[in-house]
Design brief:
The protein is mostly helical. The protein is built from six helices and four strands, in the order E-H-H-H-H-E-E-H-H-E. About 9% of the residues have low confidence. Helix 2 packs across helix 4. The two termini are 31 Å apart. A hairpin with a 7-residue loop joins strand 2 and strand 3. A two-stranded antiparallel sheet has the order 1-4. A two-stranded antiparallel ribbon has the order 2-3.
Length: 211
């Protein structure tokens, strides 16, 4: 009769993602989805969109702070690399010869930075655009700070003022969505290449231990 495999023979796992990293990650996923689908035409106000944006901004600030004072794998110093290292990793990943990292890979680290930057910029321009309408912490008595006249054909031939900050906010949100899609594709490719479920790892906080 064959003996049952001992625990020592089972693949060991290591704690990698702390609760703060995991919770902030999934909250950002949920909140960005909510604020993106609740975005309305420029000039309108949606309370869910506005407060969701404030929440994203707060989480981004906390995540940046945690990147300096958090545990090893949460710190920027453990995964921030130059663009050359990120590109090299991507080439090796596509060719099937990429090194496995217990924490973020160079490309994963670059994506973390890009997402934090664009989320912060999207929130900042959103707050500024909201302030142009006389609402929020940057309220400017309802007068647009930066506007341009946009001629539109209408029954009375009126001109509509369109906020440049509002346009930038929408463009940044779309760029962020593109980064999110690339991030999902990259996670799928890395999971396949390294035979590891990275989505599950971001839920449990544990990954297969390095050999």
């Amino acid at each position: 009769m064959n003996a049952a495999p001992s625990k020592a023979a089972q693949p060991a796992s290591a704690a990698v993602w702390d609760p703060a990293v995991r919770v902030s990650h999934w909250l950002l996923v949920a909140l960005f989805a909510v604020v993106y689908v609740t975005a309305e035409e420029e000039g309108s106000t949606n309370a869910i969109h506005v407060w969701g944006g404030y929440a994203i901004g707060a989480i981004v600030v906390l995540r940046i702070l945690w990147g300096f004072v958090g545990p090893q794998y949460a710190r920027f110093s453990s995964f921030v690399c130059g663009p050359a290292a990120a590109l090299r990793y991507l080439v090796e990943l596509v060719s099937g010869h990429a090194r496995r990292y217990l924490g973020h890979s160079p490309a994963g680290g670059a994506m973390v930075i890009a997402l934090l930057v664009f989320l912060a910029a999207t929130v900042a321009t959103g707050v500024a655009a909201y302030g142009e309408r006389g609402q929020g912490p940057l309220a400017a008595d309802g007068a647009a700070v930066v506007t341009r006249a946009k001629a539109e054909e209408g029954s009375e031939g009126k001109k509509e003022k369109e906020s440049l900050v509002g346009e930038a906010h929408g463009a940044l949100a779309n760029i962020t969505l593109g980064l999110v899609i690339l991030h999902v594709l990259g996670v799928g490719l890395a999971s396949y290449a390294h035979r590891e479920n990275l989505v599950a790892a971001m839920v449990s906080g544990r990954k297969r231990a390095a050999k």
